């Protein structure tokens, strides 16, 4: 179980970081601003409905939601399928997680198209890229490494993205083009969120890597908990992550937002892997003593 947790974090980070690189280099339009910018519908503009999740500020190709979901869920689905096969030896039951995987990806892709966040080809590209990445990284990502490895990886991700950003800007590429278009064509200005900017995904990835390293540093191997306490850990972790994610962050100045966003995602792996399991372990140990 701990191995799957680690794989999920690594695959999430790598797939989202690569998605950021692809978006910077492919310059994909988003439907909600393309309708107005294309000038194809000046005489008969179509009636389009936007939603709070529509107005993302990054480029649109490939779809990040589709790519990350496809990669991460492949890791989890293959782990569940392997578990079912080892317990039941039933091909039918083993195939169920893969069927649900396909249905879930279709639902995610259709939802991204429906809210005008992506074109169909962007969703397909993201799904295929994520699937290939998930297959390639499954069971090959680093597991238990010293804290310095995670610090170095966090630094490499951050500096690598900054280097690419600087090189593209040096050659005259305006990487803020999508932000200005999103602000211009979003029907509700309060739907523009800083957590959808490219640098937000970068700080999210760096924070998750460092948080994973700290979690493994504080408690290597975790706590050996039976299934009932693990279920309690799942419930408490979900509740804790929900409230951490809901905490409002100041958006001005931007540096403060990105710093606090980094801290938030540094805490999340530690909550799931250290704080909550440690709390549950303490409770169950006390009950056994009594």
From TrEMBL:
<feature type="transmembrane region" description="Helical">
    <location>
        <begin position="256"/>
        <end position="280"/>
    </location>
</feature>
<dbReference type="InterPro" id="IPR036938">
    <property type="entry name" value="PAP2/HPO_sf"/>
</dbReference>
<feature type="transmembrane region" description="Helical">
    <location>
        <begin position="148"/>
        <end position="168"/>
    </location>
</feature>
<feature type="transmembrane region" description="Helical">
    <location>
        <begin position="123"/>
        <end position="141"/>
    </location>
</feature>
<dbReference type="GO" id="GO:0005789">
    <property type="term" value="C:endoplasmic reticulum membrane"/>
</dbReference>
<keyword id="KW-0472">Membrane</keyword>
<comment type="pathway">
    <text>Carbohydrate biosynthesis; gluconeogenesis.</text>
</comment>
<keyword id="KW-0312">Gluconeogenesis</keyword>
<dbReference type="GO" id="GO:0006094">
    <property type="term" value="P:gluconeogenesis"/>
</dbReference>
<feature type="transmembrane region" description="Helical">
    <location>
        <begin position="66"/>
        <end position="86"/>
    </location>
</feature>
<dbReference type="Pfam" id="PF01569">
    <property type="entry name" value="PAP2"/>
</dbReference>
<feature type="domain" description="Phosphatidic acid phosphatase type 2/haloperoxidase">
    <location>
        <begin position="3"/>
        <end position="138"/>
    </location>
</feature>
<feature type="transmembrane region" description="Helical">
    <location>
        <begin position="98"/>
        <end position="117"/>
    </location>
</feature>
<keyword id="KW-0256">Endoplasmic reticulum</keyword>
<keyword id="KW-1133">Transmembrane helix</keyword>
<keyword id="KW-0378">Hydrolase</keyword>
<comment type="similarity">
    <text>Belongs to the glucose-6-phosphatase family.</text>
</comment>
<dbReference type="GO" id="GO:0051156">
    <property type="term" value="P:glucose 6-phosphate metabolic process"/>
</dbReference>
<dbReference type="InterPro" id="IPR000326">
    <property type="entry name" value="PAP2/HPO"/>
</dbReference>
<dbReference type="GO" id="GO:0004346">
    <property type="term" value="F:glucose-6-phosphatase activity"/>
</dbReference>
<protein>
    <recommendedName>
        <fullName>glucose-6-phosphatase</fullName>
        <ecNumber>3.1.3.9</ecNumber>
    </recommendedName>
</protein>
<keyword id="KW-0812">Transmembrane</keyword>
């Amino acid at each position: 179980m701990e191995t799957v947790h680690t794989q999920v974090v690594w695959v999430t980070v790598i797939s989202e970081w690569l998605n950021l690189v692809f978006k910077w280099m492919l310059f994909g339009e988003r439907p909600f601003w393309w309708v107005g910018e294309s000038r194809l519908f000046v005489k008969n503009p179509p009636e389009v409905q936007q939603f709070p999740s529509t107005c993302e500020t990054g480029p649109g190709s490939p779809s990040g939601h589709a790519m990350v979901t496809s990669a991460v869920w492949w890791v989890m689905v293959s782990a569940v399928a392997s578990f079912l096969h080892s317990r039941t030896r039933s091909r039918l039951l083993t195939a169920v997680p893969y069927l649900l995987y396909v249905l879930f990806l279709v639902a995610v892709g259709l939802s991204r198209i429906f809210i005008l966040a992506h074109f169909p080809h962007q969703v397909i590209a993201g799904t295929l890229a994520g699937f290939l990445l998930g297959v390639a990284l499954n069971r090959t990502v680093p597991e238990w490494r010293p804290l310095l490895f995670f610090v170095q990886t966090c630094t490499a991700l951050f500096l690598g993205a900054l280097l690419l950003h600087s090189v593209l800007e040096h050659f005259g590429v305006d990487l803020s083009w999508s932000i200005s278009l999103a602000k211009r064509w979003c029907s509700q200005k309060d739907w523009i969120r800083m957590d959808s900017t490219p640098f937000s995904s970068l700080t999210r990835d760096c924070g998750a890597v460092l948080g994973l390293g700290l979690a493994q540093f504080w408690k290597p191997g975790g706590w050996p908990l039976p299934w009932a306490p693990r279920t309690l850990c799942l419930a408490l972790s979900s509740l804790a992550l929900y409230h951490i994610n809901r905490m409002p962050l100041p958006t001005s100045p931007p540096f403060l937002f990105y710093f606090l966003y980094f801290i938030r995602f540094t805490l999340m792996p530690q909550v799931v892997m250290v704080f909550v399991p440690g709390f549950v372990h303490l409770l169950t140990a006390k009950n056994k003593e009594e």
